[in-house]
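Hey, can you fold this one?
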Amino acid sequence: MADLTVIKYDRSGAPGTGLQDWDPISQDILYSGNPLQRGHTYHDTAGGIFTSGVWDCTPHELLPAPYETDEFMIVLEGSIIIEHESGKIERFRAGDSFILPQGTPCIWRQDEYALKYWAIHDNPGHPLTADPKLQPIRVDPDAKLPAITGQDPAVYESEVPDMGWLTLYRDPGGKFQAGIWDCSPMRRVPATIERSELMHILEGSGSITNADGVVFNFTAGDTFLVPIGMGYQWQNDTYVKKIFCSYTP
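Sure. Predicted structure:
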C-alpha cells in the first residue's frame, strides 16, 4: 500500500476547483453583515476532531460568545479583530498567526475581507464554558525559545542538533498544541509520525521523505501538513525555524 504524503497548502484552495462556497454563517450567531464564506479542507483527522485548511470571508460581526473550538490561524490577506469580554481588542493582519483557545469569551469581527489558513481542534468531550482567563494568543516569531536538552542520539543519523521549543498553547487534554520550534542542521532516522502536524516555515529550508521515498522540499514561507501515520524522515541542511500546530490522538 502506498504511503501517505505531505500536504502542501495553497491560499487558492484545491487545484482545479479552488475555494468552494460554504454554507452561510448561521443567523443565530451573526450580529451584523451578510457574509459569504468559502473554503477548502486539506486534512481531517479522527472524524472531524482535528481539521485544517484555507478559508475566506467577507465582512461581518458575530455575537459575543465563548469560542467553540481551539483554533490556530495564519492570516494571509485582510485582517481579523478579536474583542475580548474584558474590552481588550486585537487586530490580526496579514502575516500574523494566532491561537483562540476553546472557551475564550470574545466577539469575532471583520471590517474587511479576510483569508486565512486554519487548524481546528473540536473537542466535544470538553464542556464549552466561557473562561475570562483565556485570551487570544499572538505568535511572536522572534520569541526566545528554551533549549531542548537530553536528546536521544539514536533518533539522528547526524550529530545531535541544537534545538529550541516554545509551547504557546496546549489544550486541557494535552492532544492539541501550537508553538515555535527551531533547529540547527540535522537528519533524523526514518520513523512513522504519531501526530498530524501543520507547519509554517519561517526561516531555512529542508526536506521530508516518506516511506515510499517521495521527497517533499520546503523553504521559508511554505505551509504544509504531515498526516499522522506517514513515514517520516526530516532533514535540514540549514538552520530552520517554524510555527507548528499538532494533534496527537
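The chain has two domains: 7-138, 153-247. Let me know if you want another pass with a different chain boundary.
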